[in-house]
Amino acid sequence: MTIGNRWALNDRMLPTGEYQALTADEEKMKTGGLYPFFDSMDNHYTTAPQNGRNYMELTDAKAEVKLVYDVGTSYKQWMIWNNGAQPGFFCPEPQMNLVNAPNVDLPAEQIGLTALEPGEVWEQSARLYVIPIVK
Asked: Cα dihedral sign for 126, 130, 131, 135?
């Protein structure tokens, strides 16, 4: 998964504008090979595109497939929720801007805040697809 930094959240689950250090397991999320229910997650991260791509890959070894969630690099944030580390539901959500971005005193580019002029369009793509695991 192309995560960068984890945002620190306040008691209302809103980003504070500060980062928290990634755990060793979160670092492993960046390179693959980690069970997605290693710990309870309701976290917000910056993106860190790799080779011009922003993506998440989730492998189902039993079904011998890999789900790929390939999103555009205009998405600057990832939100990850895994239902309290209960197996069965994993939600990686690309977001164009930081939650509550207009109220965070950081540069617009850092938090993904985009202003549109009248008639201007913001457009980005995302793809979900499944590929077989090559053995």
From this structure: positive
In this prediction the pTM is 0.90
Tokens of 96: 């164009």
Nearest one of 86, 79, 26, 34 to 57, comparing CA atoms: 34
Contacts for 65 with CB less than 8 Å, ≥ 6 apart: 59, 130, 131, 132, 133
Neighbouring-strand partners of residue 80: 43, 92
Tens digit of each residue's pLDDT, the chain (135 residues): 999 999 999 999 999 999 999 999 999 998 877 999 999 999 999 999 999 999 999 999 899 999 999 999 999 999 999 999 999 899 999 999 999 999 999 999 999 999 999 999 999 999 999 999 987
Three-state SS string across the chain, please? CCEEEEEEECCCCCEEEEEECCCHHHHHHCCCCCCCCCCCCEEEEEECCECCEEEEEEEECCCCEEEEEEECCCCCEEEEECHHHCCCCCEEEEECCCCCHHHCCCCHHHHCCCCCCCCCCCCCCEEEEEEECCC
